[in-house]
Amino acid sequence: MGMRVHTQLPLPADLKAEYPVSDSIQIIKKERDKEIRDIFTGKSDKFIVLVGPCSADNEDAVCEYVNRLAKLNEKVSDRLMIIPRIYTNKPRTTGEGYKGMLHQPEPDKAPDLLAGIIAIRKMHLRAIKESGLTAADEMLYPENRSYLDDVLSYEAIGARSVENQQHRLTASGMDIPIGMKNPTSGDFSVMLNSVIAAQSSHRFIYRGMDVTTDGNELAHVILRGGVDKYGTCIPNYHYEDLIRLLQMYQKMQLKNPATIIDVNHSNSNKKFKEQIRIVSEVIHSRRYNPDLKALVKGVMIESYLEEGNQSIGSERVYGKSITDPCLGWKDTERLIYEIAEKC
């Protein structure tokens, strides 16, 4: 048999008991969850800014970054809803490379998933306690989300996972917003079919149990650009793309039509500085068309303490991405102020 068991991992309930959510954090999460829900249901017109590192690779650096966001949030919270990206699972196109803190809590050491699930839970709890901001993570492995489902306020399903049945069914049992990215091909229909599935009730096997879900009315789409058969990036944040998405939403009669625009990845051709310009264009489209203002709920930005990226090594720069390149803090701070002013 080509599979070896390294260790028996604790049940999510046992890990939660060992690293519990305090009463104060429960209150914070309840309040933020309601505020985010109100945005997606149209009760609030605040603009969402999902912002943070491509991958969370160091607890101290991530928490310092989130604490800086919290100070910004105090100044713009009347107009913006800042949700830190604390992404602890990193999808890899070929399976090679750093797979995130869940796999490698210390990036330059061998994988250790027991240490990883403990590390990511402790990091999320610390970030909330210090900053008062609940965060977003990616649901890369549906069954693993049970280790964090009591602390997250937003989750995303990536371009490589959005067609997967288990991801769609698991999303249908969540009570927080779940963003379905368009696949790497850029196909809108695949993405919207995923939303249909997530908003519907299903019965299936989850963590060895026979379960039925209620459906998640907050499931929505994330536009992240696509790649054609020649490997050329095709952005989908332009005005014409948003109009097309709006028309498709109207035909499907889904609940709470909404999109978040991922301004990096194939939308920026991974040229991280382009994120600034793309955000500006998205905001302009919203201001020009009231229907798009209602549809486009926010943007997703990749940003860290230091701009760019670096390879994993002994001389790593603190707060600099070891995966995709990110905006640095100065550009991020300036950009968030500009969003608050214009949105």
Helix content: 25-40%
Number of helices: 11
Q: How many strands?
A: 14
**Class per helix and strand makeup:** alpha/beta
| Poorly predicted runs | none
End-to-end distance, in Å? 56 Å
The best one-word shape is: globular
Biggest sheet overview: 8 strands, parallel
Question: What order do the helices and strands come in, and which of them pair?
Answer:
Blueprint: H1 12-18, H2 23-40, E1 47-52, H3 59-76, E2 80-84, H4 113-131, E3 135-138, E4 152-157, H5 165-171, E5 178-181, H6 188-198, E6 203-206, E7 209-212, E8 220-223, E9 226-227, E10 233-234, H7 239-252, E11 259-262, H8 265-268, H9 274-288, H10 290-295, E12 296-302, E13 306-309, E14 320-321, H11 329-342
Parallel strand pairs: 1-2, 1-12, 3-4, 4-5, 5-8, 8-11, 11-12, 13-14
Antiparallel strand pairs: 6-7, 9-10
Helix pairs in contact: 3-4, 3-11, 5-6, 9-11
Short description:
This protein has 343 residues and is of the alpha/beta class.
